[in-house]
## 1
Amino acid sequence: MNDLLVSFDGITVRYLDKLIFENLDFRIEKGHNWAITGPSGSGKTALLETIAGSFNIVNGEASYPFFDQLVKKNRITDPLIRWRQFIALISSRHNFRTLSNTTEIYYQQRFNAADVENLPSVKDYLLSQQALFPSPVWNYQYTIERLRLIPLQDKQLIMLSNGETKRLLIAAALLRNPVLLLLDNPLSGLDVEARKDFNTLLEEIIDSGIQVVMTTSPTEIPDAITHIAMLENGKITRQLPKSSFAAEEVPAVASPDIDTRELERLLAINAFGNYNTMIEMKEVSITYGSKVVLDNINWKVEQGERWALLGHNGAGKSTLLSLINADNPQAYANHIVLFDVQKGHGASIWDIKKKIGFVSPELFQYFPTDSSCLQVVESGFHETLGFLRFQSPESTNLARRWMQLLEIEQFGSKTFRHVSASIQRLCLLARALVKNPPLLILDEPVQGLDSHQQEHFKAVVDLICQKGNTTLIYVSHYQHEIPQCVTHTLRLERGRVV
């Protein structure tokens, strides 16, 4: 019994009005560090949420023997101290708050230096993390050194890149010195070096006495993981030691089945015209205080070209894209031509945005979640973050057709916040495609999708480019995620073109 940390015996789990698990058995023992794998919607994230105590267990028996041991060892008498305080969950969405303790943080804030005064810095956020029993290993100084956060301490949270945010959230969790660390897809969005470092970091975390359960792709299981649970349709189909897990356990991905004729019909609606120059940047530089984010960028994109934008976490990719997508006010201080018009010479923000289909990890983080999935897709017609205006029957029908093409039509009436993260991401991808824009900017578009969803979306992008003259800018840290249609590459390193 001393080796048992968490035990679920025949549990039934509900969230809102939905049955999540029924008659589920799962145990976490000391020395067993788990990877949970399975297709989208199989219940991977829900299992982490259940372990963390976020969902209601309405039947069966759930016990947390590790807490009884903690109480006895540390002579805990305070009835307000509960087992949940010793479990840290890092989910796919963070919940950053302002210094006024509100959640009023919005996407464009990250590009407006004057609009972040009410947002905590990295240092503020980390110092707010409290541990009931401080770790002998993960003290503040060692943690920020190990997670490479020292240069970022004075940076506001919203200004961090996707990879930097992941490092911050892990640091914050370690400072709380949990018994159990739960990680939801921690490798997604990390560059090659960061993924290697995560492997080493995970070993250090486990060696320090913290147990780990993480969701991940079956092809990206870190060395420190000892056991694997495979989920499908809310059921654990297999539990086995990692030493017994082989590549053949991973089912092959079937070739995508795209309705090509329907895609052609959709691309014929709202057909766009021709442009001489889609994007041209001359000696573009962006600074925040003394920090140079982009340094003397020269780049020209002609209509119909398909580009991969590459670079390490924090290289400046998101800032570069914000100049094109009319989110960054510093664009007007630089020589930038978009759709044949120089910035500041007549075209409004909305003139630019209506020609661009855009998605990014940051948009996913800050997108409002109270609309239905169909309304989220429809918002792409008006470039709004959320559903703000009445739609015509024609636009509603178009949105449904794009959702069907991306295999998510059955979620149309569901509230955005109540579907899985992968379905949310696919809704935002449909939102980017729905108006058939001349320029697609897809920043890590298949992050968090399972293998089938990734291959299906890549096939849709390839067909869009094959059937028309769409210009594409595609960001990824994984070579296998880049569509075949990509023929040009721009690589950034520390804000410079290399």
Note: The chain has two domains: 4-249, 260-497.
## 2
Amino acid sequence: MLPLPTCFELLIMNKVVVGLSGGVDSSVAAYLLKQQGYDVTGLFMINWHDTTGTLSGDCPWEDDKIFAELVARKLDIPFFTVDFSKEYREKVVDYMFSEYQRGRTPNPDVLCNREVKFDLFIKEARKLGADYVATGHYCRKDITQTGNQTIYRLLAGTDPSKEQSYFLCQLSQEQLKMALFPIGHMYKSEIRKIAEEQDLATAQKKDSQGICFVGKVDLPAFLQQKLKSKKGITIEIPVDCPIYKDKSLTKISGNPDLPDLKNVSAQYIYKSEYGKQVGEHNGAHFFTIGQNKGLNIGGRPKQSFVLDIDVVNNIVYTGLGQEHPGLYRKGLFIPKPDIHWIRKDLELLPGQSKTLNVRIRYRQSLQAATLFMHSDGLYIVFEIPQRGITPGQFAAWYENYELLGSGVIG
């Protein structure tokens, strides 16, 4: 629950700019803040104009803006619009294209929050005199002291079906300092009920899906704005391929308690001679590890899944069945430049290790793992092998539902 501001705070630090997205969550966030005595302003962001590859075929932001304006009018709060489409393309979409071209799978929502919602948006909110910014994310924030240092903690949201802290895993202390999450302690059903009781236009509006601010897309069609189709072959790898025998959790000589980190965290290296050709595709960069749609492989006894892609030679490697060993890895590696600590006071130093909970994708349940910090980066070894560890995605680590840090999987 957000703390009610004191009378003194209401006098000097009470202006909140809410990112009104046109959805029910941000609408109720604005309502709750106003009820708690804050001076609330709504700010709507336009971040994407192009409809290439989108499944709606229209400009979804136009409808969203109408809903956001209706909510602002109902709540009797000022409403402004800002266009970040140029910056969004440069900071988020161009990064997406670059990562897919390299054969990696980015998470644009994480980048959108770091670069747009809690960077460009904060700067714009400050121009409006904001002391805080607020969003409709399902996560929580609290404040603690470490010596003379004030620490802002990012906590998981209460509703397990909507928990969104993972999307904010790249935020900094400076960004969290200004952030408020008014609905993080609530359940979605409560949000809908409040919206209906207050007769907000977004009460029955469906939640947005797909890429942040872009919407649902046909990914190959979307990526073809920059990445061209190119015929390649699909190779099926058998479950008894010898390379899987080399990934056991061996011990480093002379240290029986330390696993061979480089062995368990390295990706499998596939060669076409390890399997047989079972099909063709239009570009390896259009696929991601674990994918089973769009492969166009028929006549196989089980479903086919992508095990890996080789964008240099334009080969997609697949395996049969959900339990194929190529879909699972015991660990992962995050290069040193790609490690980010929200709690810098808890940052591991080279040679240190700690057992925490980790997730490698949104909505995945937390997985027990040990983090080993080395001079070259962070090695994460899971208690149970994880399915679909994908380069370019973010791994985020938690302690008692507090998100401590994250990094880009190498």
Note: Confidence is low (pLDDT under 50) at residues 5-12, 248-256.
## 3
Amino acid sequence: MAKEVAKKAAKEAVTIKSIEELEQELRAKRNDLLEAKRANKAGELVNPRAITAYRKDIARLMTQINERKSNG
């Protein structure tokens, strides 16, 4: 039970990043997504679910960036 609480707390721990750092991470994730799509088409991608994970990560990053830009 204690391990589950610790894992949940670790997931919820948020590090404050600047908009520039978030945008840099966004560019890296978009590049990773592009490479994963290419690998999937070539039949080299072992885990096709990685594409979905990249898309969700990109959406999360974009949400954070937009929130920070709108809040000033």
Note: The chain has three helices and no strands.
